[in-house]
Amino acid sequence: MASMFYEPCLEILKAAPGREMRVVEISRQIREKFPALHWSGGDGPVRALLMSAAGNGTPIRMVQGSRPPRFYYSEAAASAPAAAHIPEASPEEIMEEAFCRADRALRDELLARIVKMDDTAFEILVNSLISRMGFGRAEMTQASHDGGIDGYIYGDRLGLNVICVQTKRYDGHNVQRPEIDRFIGALEGRDGVFVTSSGFSPEAKRKAEKPCCNSKIALIDGEMLVGFMIEYNVGVQEVGKSYVLKRLDTDYFEELAG
C-alpha cells in the first residue's frame, strides 16, 4: 500500500526544501492535496514508505528525535552528514498528532459499523444525517415502491423544494455509471443526493457532474459520510475533557519591561 503514496509524498517534501517534516504533517497534506487516494489506517503507509526510502539510499533521510522515538524526515543528498538532534515536539504538535490518530480510528470504526448494517438501517441513517445538516425534513419511501428513490428531503412545509435521496451500502464495491443513470431517470428533473458507504467510479462522477434534465446531483462517498456524521454528531458522542492550550504572551512581558 505504501507505494501509492510515493509520488504525493515526494511532491510534498520537494515543496518544502530544507525543512524537517513529521509523518503526521506529510500525511495531512496528502489527504488535503490528493483526496482521490484511498486512505485507511492512521499514518502507517506513509511512515512505512519513508522508513523504507531512508534505508535504501533514496534522497529522503530519516532523523530520530525525541523520546519516546518520533520520526522526522527531510530531503538530503546521499553524502549529507549525520543529522543533528531535532528538539522535542511542541505540546500543540503532540495533541494534534493524538487527535489525528483518534479521528482516523473513529472514521474507520464508523465505516466498519456502517457496512454491517442492513439496507433499511442505512437509509434511516442517511436521511437523519441530511436532515441534521439542515436541508429539511426527511422521509423514507416504501421499500417496494421507491422507483429508485430511497428518501425525500422536504426543504419547505409545502413540499415544493424536494431533494431525492438514493443510498447504496457497499463494502469495497464502488458505485458505477449505470447506477447514476438510473438515479437520474428516477429524479425526473429534481435534484438528488447519492450516498454510498464505498466510493464512485470515475465514469459515475463524470456523469453526476453533468446529469442533464436540469437536475443537480451531489455525491457523498464513505469517507465524506463519516466526516459529516462526526461533524453533525450522528452516531457519535463527545467523551472526555476539552482542553484549551495556552502559550506565553511575550508581548505582555516586553511591555511590562518597558
Notes on the structure:
This protein has 258 residues and is an alpha/beta fold. It has two domains: 2-89, Orthogonal Bundle (Arc Repressor Mutant, subunit A), CATH 1.10.10.10; 118-231, Trna Endonuclease, Chain: A, domain 1 (3-Layer(aba) Sandwich), CATH 3.40.1350.10. Helices cover 42% and strands 14% of the residues. It has helices at 6-14, 23-33, 44-55, 91-115, 119-132, 177-187, 202-209, 222-231, 250-257, and strands at 21-22, 60-64, 71-75, 137-140, 151-154, 162-168, 191-196, 217-220. The strands form two sheets. It has a five-stranded mixed beta sheet, with helices on both faces. A hairpin with a 7-residue loop joins strand 5 and strand 6 (162-168). Helix 1 (6-14) crosses helix 2 (23-33) and helix 6 packs parallel to helix 7. The longest helix has 25 residues, at 91-115. It starts with 5 loop residues before the first helix and ends with a helix.
Q: Can you describe this structure in just a few lines?
A:
Strand 7, helix 7 and strand 8 form a beta-alpha-beta unit.
Strand order of the largest sheet: 4-5-6-7-8
Continuous helix count: 9
User: Quick one: CATH class of the largest domain?
Assistant: Alpha Beta
Strand content: 5-15%
Fraction of residues in H or I helices = 40-55%
Low-pLDDT runs of 5+ residues are: 56-87
Global Rg = 24 Å
Query: What is the structural class?
Result: alpha/beta
CATH architecture verdict of the largest domain: 3-Layer(aba) Sandwich
Number of strands: 8
Q: From N to C, what is the helix and strand string?
A: HEHHEEHHEEEHEHEHH
Write the layout of secondary structure elements.
Elements: H1 6-14, E1 21-22, H2 23-33, H3 44-55, E2 60-64, E3 71-75, H4 91-115, H5 119-132, E4 137-140, E5 151-154, E6 162-168, H6 177-187, E7 191-196, H7 202-209, E8 217-220, H8 222-231, H9 250-257
Parallel strand pairs: 6-7, 7-8
Antiparallel strand pairs: 1-3, 2-3, 4-5, 5-6
Helix pairs in contact: 1-2, 6-7
